[in-house]
């Protein structure tokens, strides 16, 4: 199980997204936030790359607006897709129930978005760096 159930049907069973269902997911990274549209059947790794692209545009726009400089490249602060992971944050747009994002669940790049039972349109995903593996 990738994510703890969050969204339930009228019968109380976890609601699963259909593969063709369109969702808008909020992606957080530091102080930046973007909303990315996806199909529930999309793989997490593909979605993560698109989210990183949109975050890079937003970070650059924010830096240009704040500094008024045309040659500032703040998008370098974003990690490459290989060294970061998306985490599903329980509580949707209200944030995690305990206010701490440690209760989140990591989504595997090879999984489909629909595999996370609690995921729904408006859900919050947090982009986090993955610690390097210890040398063998």
Quick overview of this protein structure:
The protein is of the alpha+beta class and 136 residues long. The protein has one helix spanning 44-67; strands spanning 22-29, 32-39, 84-89, 105-107, 124-129. It contains 1 helix and 5 strands; from the N terminus they run ββαβββ.
Could you please describe the fold and organization of this structure?
With 136 residues, the protein is of the alpha+beta class. 18% of the residues lie in helices and 23% in strands. It contains 1 helix and 5 strands, in the order ββαβββ. The protein is globular, with a radius of gyration of 16 Å. The chain starts with 21 loop residues before the first strand and ends in a 7-residue tail after the last strand. Residues 4-10 have low confidence and may be disordered.
H/E series: EEHEEE
Structural class: alpha+beta
Strand ordering within the main sheet:
2-1-5-3-4
Distance between the termini: 28 Å
Blueprint of the fold:
Layout: E1 22-29, E2 32-39, H1 44-67, E3 84-89, E4 105-107, E5 124-129
Parallel strand pairs: 1-5
Antiparallel strand pairs: 1-2, 3-4, 3-5
Which labels suit this protein?
136 residues; alpha+beta
């Amino acid at each position: 199980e990738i994510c703890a159930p969050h969204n339930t049907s009228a019968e109380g069973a976890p609601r699963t997204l259909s593969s063709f269902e369109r969702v808008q997911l909020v992606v957080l990274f530091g102080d930046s936030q973007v909303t990315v549209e996806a199909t529930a059947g999309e793989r997490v790794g593909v979605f993560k790359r698109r989210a990183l692209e949109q975050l890079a545009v937003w970070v650059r726009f924010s830096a240009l607006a704040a500094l008024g400089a045309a040659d500032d490249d703040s998008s370098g602060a974003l990690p490459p897709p290989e060294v970061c992971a998306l985490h599903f944050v329980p509580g949707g747009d209200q944030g995690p129930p305990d206010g701490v994002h440690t209760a989140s669940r990591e989504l595997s790049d090879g999984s489909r978005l629909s595999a996370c039972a609690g995921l729904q349109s408006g859900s919050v995903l947090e982009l986090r760096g993955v610690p390097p593996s210890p040398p063998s």
